[in-house]
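Continuing the batch. This is chain 6 of the set; chains 1 through 5 are on the previous pages. Same settings as before, nothing changed between runs. Recording input and output for traceability.
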Amino acid sequence: MSSHRDLAQRWIATVAALAGLAAVCVAPGARAQMGHGLPPPARPLHLRLAEADVVAIASVERVEIGRIALRDVRALRGAPGERFEIKRAPSRAPALAEGDQALFLLAGARAPYLMVDEPRELLRLSDAAQRERWQAALASLLGAGDDPDALLQAYLAWIDGDDAELREAATRALTDRRVLAVEIPPAVAVRRAAIALDAGRPEEVRRSSAGVASLTLEGVAALLAGMARADIDPAVAQIALASGGMQRAPGMPAATARAVAHANPEVRRAGLALAGWFAADPAVRAAVERVAKSDPDPDLRTQAERALRDAAERR
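Output for chain 6:
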């Protein structure tokens, strides 16, 4: 029989694995970050904007030792002029070349300014269309200032829009567990859960909305209740179960049973990842035993057998 410490460590590992999978589902760009040990994703954009005296979209005129000269400047905050220079610290040198366009968040009373962003956070703009999209989006964020409600509404509009880059930036900003600088009211979380469970919504909108909903117990409860839906997105199910596991949500046994018994094999897989912890519940145990005995997927049968063994160790 496993010790209490072993069981606790296995619970943490199980939920962490589901949470990692959920994070990938919410933000596709996280896959490479997680898989290759790269630095953590960019800090929430509104926190970086708060540090900037100057916000501008500009083209690189030339790159020199210790300096980067910019031209064709569109200032969104401050009045730096149509051309100016920024300091280029060798230890934090961004990978920029002549002709590149980017969003520059800068600190200082006058040129040469210092960059607020880390090199990995610098947003490069590939064409005029992307530049126009970001200029319009940043106007809403800058207009929100430090008003949490206005920031939340600006980010939610990005999530509901059709630009994948803006959606990912908004999802990261709202769900970044390092800061959680924008509070999600329960009513907003429940509404996001409803969007996440709406099969008529675009896939990435559903998954980003699930990530936002998962930040409150009310949102998690609404997501878990959706496990009974035949059309639930497997990624949304994974997010719901990961969040419910981390927050020890009251509806976890019933939601896990529904997931394990679901017609979609990927939903069953997500349920089985936690089933061993809730197998004392008769509905969970019965669902797991059915999968172990007769599921058409041999991998799921194996996973169910493992969940039953794990449950036996915890008795």
